[in-house]
Amino acid sequence: MLRHISPALAALALVLSAAQVAVTPGIAAAQPIYPLPDPDPFYAAPADLDRAKPGDVLGVRSMPALLAFPGTTVTMIKFRSTNSAGDPIAATTTVLTPHNHVPGGPLLSYQHIINGLGTRCAVSRVLYTDDPNLAVREAPALNAVLLRGWSVALPDHLGPTSAYGAAKLGGMITLDGIRAARQVAELGVATSPIALFGYSGGGMATGWAAALAPTYAPELDIAGAAEGGVPMNLVKMTEGLGYSRHPAFGLALAAAIGLEREYPTRLPISDHLNAFGLATRDRIANGCTNEILAAGAGHSVLDVASSTSLADDPSARSVLEENSLELYDGVPKTPIYQWRSHEDALIPVASIDNTVRRYCAAGASVRSALFPSPDHLTTAVLGAPAAMAWIEERFRGTPAPSDC
């Protein structure tokens, strides 16, 4: 379970120190490194992508049945979305349709935690991998949802360049994936009530989707969003971070690379790596969790950086700010269920509380749940059943309770 929770949050924190490094004068600039394109042409962007609107369907493909989800039809959708610079991109989502789904039945968009830089780490690929290290361990929980007759959308929310760490991007892809699914008639979700669910890194994509929806996808009537353990302020995570060695530092570097892919001119991490840092970057450029962890285990920012003089750079800082929900002015219109531990060792819980207070002051409906464990992973497990029960009530049309 380490690959699903703790390293992801450690990475999101540690990488921000990586964003503080600066190139030593006289060293030639290095270009960002992007993943190898997926060899399957279905993932490729069409030449006329700029003519499509966000959420427009670019392709639909029926996928083989999955033993992990018995009695479920699997459909992959390619659609037009938007990156953090406002440019069109082609993204993908996978929709699971249970045998007992009826037209108009609920649609749950589940934002899976994706720790990786390679295209093979995307959920649509992981569903069909024979690598046990990449298996979807949430399958039992998702099967419980499918048994209720709900359809489940699993967006590849890191986008076509596997921009690990780019949370706002994940929100836009999530919303456009829902738009696309509603356009595919055979899925029977054109009029379905919609809900969002995600924890930790998946909670970031969920939280951003909920906050962006009123302006980015105002036509979507989202019944509710359950988000747990969400890192809501990347700047504050940086400020409390030192330069100690960490067993999950590989994921920290991976998140730095992912953010550079999304913001190549504003956060040019590759310019600021030493020879060892560049070699490690190249080694993990197409890696998933285990390869990334192995490459960076026991290292720190000081091992890969040429200097640490960019801590106050306004451009780098603005990237972190733009991916911090606490600092985003938008307020969700949909009811929110958020859960966290009293004192989470991996994320600044004060940022969650500040965000909730701001949402409440703006008239949002927020239900908050606290759990006594300081362990991030344990809180995910403890809180998920209540969060799913809360979503089920929203699908039934029960008015959302609020702690505001």
Structural features, described:
It contains 13 helices and 9 strands. Residues 1-28 have low confidence and may be disordered. With 404 residues, the chain is of the alpha/beta class. The longest helix has 21 residues, at 376-396.
Q: Identify the strand order in the major beta sheet.
A: 1-2-3-5-4-6-7-8-9
The proportion of residues forming helix, as a percent range, comes to: 25-40%
Quote the average pLDDT. Answer: 88
Distance between the termini: 34 Å
Key words describing this protein structure:
404 residues, alpha/beta, nine-stranded mixed β-sheet, 13 helices, globular
Q: Helices and strands in order, then pairings?
A:
Layout: H1 6-18, E1 57-63, E2 72-82, E3 88-98, E4 107-111, H2 123-126, H3 139-147, E5 151-155, H4 167-183, E6 194-199, H5 201-216, E7 222-228, H6 234-239, H7 249-262, H8 275-284, H9 289-296, H10 301-304, H11 314-322, E8 336-341, H12 349-361, E9 366-371, H13 376-396
Parallel strand pairs: 4-5, 4-6, 6-7, 7-8, 8-9
Antiparallel strand pairs: 1-2, 2-3, 3-5
